[in-house]
Amino acid sequence: MEHRTGTMVVCLKHVGITDWVREVENVSLSISQYGIVLDAGSSHTAVYIYEWPAEKDNDTGRVQQTHSCKVQGAGISSYSVFPGQAGASLKSCMKEAESLIPLSRHLETPLYLGATAGMRLLRMENQSLSDQVLWSVEEVLQSSPFSYQGARIITGQEEGAFGWVTVNYLSDRLKQGSGTTGALDLGGASTQISFVANQDVAEESAENAVTFRLYGNDYFLYTHSFLCYGKDQALKLALAQQTQSGDSSVLDPCFHPGYSVDRSYFSVYSSPCVMAGKPLVSRDSFTHVGAGNASLCQEVVRRIFNFSSCSFSRCSFNRVYQPPLQGPFGAFSAFYFVMNFLNLTSGSLESSREKLERYCSRPWTQIKQQHPDVKEKYLAEYCFSGSYILSLLTDGYNFTSDTWTDITFIKKISGSDAGWTLGYMLNLTNMIPAEAPDTPPLPHAGYVTLLFFISLLLFFLLFLCFRFLWPHRNSQTQMI
Ligand SMILES: Nc1ccn([C@@H]2O[C@H](COP(=O)(O)OP(=O)(O)OP(=O)(O)O)[C@@H](O)[C@H]2O)c(=O)n1
Ligand SMILES: [Ca+2]
């Protein structure tokens, strides 16, 4: 009996306390896992570090962005003159990543680089130069201590679709299988629109259709990336429209009154986006003069879109198919930078137009005085950028006064930047399962509590055993 009781105690120890100890150990040992994605955009490169709990069940750990580093200087496509130097530009952010991620995790931290529209344009202009730039960044990333998984130019379709995955993953809409949010991304050289539409997208325009099966739900996505319609390239398109006559100066309604800058024709016409030829004039430059009129600016901007024909049931612009919009939408990157600066992230479409009208008409000297800390290049362009965004969303994508409020301008969701990088990594690391994971009947904490009470109950039962069996044995001995 004593022996059996003893075994029970051992057994009890095994089920209760040891497991508890193991639980505590697990919690303290639950080191994080990390992943790094470099977003090599047209205007700049950013390094994102993601972190998630290293549990067996990956799915329970929400992946979060814990750090971002902005690479000094312009995007990697700007190194086309000295392609070998593109890699060196990444070094300081990569060193930062080395110091932030625990040494013991370096070898198993996947590292990816995805390049977007700037590199797509460079590849169109000169494939060999774009290859050299990629080799240069590859060399630096390969020599890092992380698990390098490749550097490539991602497609516009991937850029749009993974932006959509990021936004919906971060707002926890995928697991719930509830409604989703569309994604609007505005970069320097391209812009993307992605939203759940019905299945006929694939029938009407296969190149705009992406299907995902995530957590047991099927999603039929419409996505399109407009190369050359990022805000920097759109400005070149607008300037090319206005400099066709080859005059020595251009009065531009998209810039503030009093703004006057000499620009080279080359800077406007060197991009493969600018189809119109450089005017045949002997002069190399023109004076870019601001006139500050947002409604006239919108007319200028409208001319960079082609609305003339559509071979589908409906189009956005440039003969691109677009099904009816299905909101809500999250608009990020330059959509956010610009609208946030202009204080246009809330309110009706009409009030945004009025505010922008007032903003554009203000003298350039006054604007500069009011924002001494803002980079002058950004500052000079906000009137154009605001007008371009309003035109792209309404004339281009067909948002109306009624659907305008379906758009939320966002930078981050739960601390992570909205953008394609997180969705790209989740996909490549297979972190989102196609099927819904078996959900345990109790959450983790529930099991710990249950164990605690079972242990308590067993202790109590043992206590009772001792109490009632012990005197009984004694009395038997006495009888013998
Ligand atoms: N505070 C800021 C930061 C950036 N920008 C501008 O916003 C645009 C887009 O920035 P970003 O989304 O970072 O573009 P990229 O990713 O570099 O470009 P792409 O996606 O087209 O490759 C650029 O013109 C940049 O100059 C801005 O106006 N204000
Ligand atoms: Ca981008």
Automatic annotation (TrEMBL):
<keyword id="KW-0460">Magnesium</keyword>
<dbReference type="GO" id="GO:0009134">
    <property type="term" value="P:nucleoside diphosphate catabolic process"/>
</dbReference>
<comment type="similarity">
    <text>Belongs to the GDA1/CD39 NTPase family.</text>
</comment>
<keyword id="KW-0547">Nucleotide-binding</keyword>
<keyword id="KW-1015">Disulfide bond</keyword>
<dbReference type="GO" id="GO:0005524">
    <property type="term" value="F:ATP binding"/>
</dbReference>
<dbReference type="InterPro" id="IPR000407">
    <property type="entry name" value="GDA1_CD39_NTPase"/>
</dbReference>
<dbReference type="GO" id="GO:0017111">
    <property type="term" value="F:ribonucleoside triphosphate phosphatase activity"/>
</dbReference>
<keyword id="KW-1133">Transmembrane helix</keyword>
<dbReference type="GO" id="GO:0045134">
    <property type="term" value="F:UDP phosphatase activity"/>
</dbReference>
<dbReference type="GO" id="GO:0004382">
    <property type="term" value="F:GDP phosphatase activity"/>
</dbReference>
<feature type="transmembrane region" description="Helical">
    <location>
        <begin position="447"/>
        <end position="470"/>
    </location>
</feature>
<protein>
    <recommendedName>
        <fullName>Ectonucleoside triphosphate diphosphohydrolase 1</fullName>
        <ecNumber>3.6.1.5</ecNumber>
    </recommendedName>
</protein>
<keyword id="KW-0106">Calcium</keyword>
<keyword id="KW-0067">ATP-binding</keyword>
<keyword id="KW-0472">Membrane</keyword>
<dbReference type="Pfam" id="PF01150">
    <property type="entry name" value="GDA1_CD39"/>
</dbReference>
<comment type="function">
    <text>Catalyzes the hydrolysis of both di- and triphosphate nucleotides (NDPs and NTPs) and hydrolyze NTPs to nucleotide monophosphates (NMPs) in two distinct successive phosphate-releasing steps, with NDPs as intermediates and participates in the regulation of extracellular levels of nucleotides. By hydrolyzing proinflammatory ATP and platelet-activating ADP to AMP, it blocks platelet aggregation and supports blood flow.</text>
</comment>
<keyword id="KW-0378">Hydrolase</keyword>
<feature type="binding site">
    <location>
        <begin position="188"/>
        <end position="192"/>
    </location>
    <ligand>
        <name>ATP</name>
    </ligand>
</feature>
<dbReference type="GO" id="GO:0005901">
    <property type="term" value="C:caveola"/>
</dbReference>
<keyword id="KW-0812">Transmembrane</keyword>
<keyword id="KW-0325">Glycoprotein</keyword>
<dbReference type="GO" id="GO:0004050">
    <property type="term" value="F:apyrase activity"/>
</dbReference>
<feature type="active site" description="Proton acceptor">
    <location>
        <position position="159"/>
    </location>
</feature>
<comment type="subunit">
    <text>Homodimer; disulfide-linked.</text>
</comment>
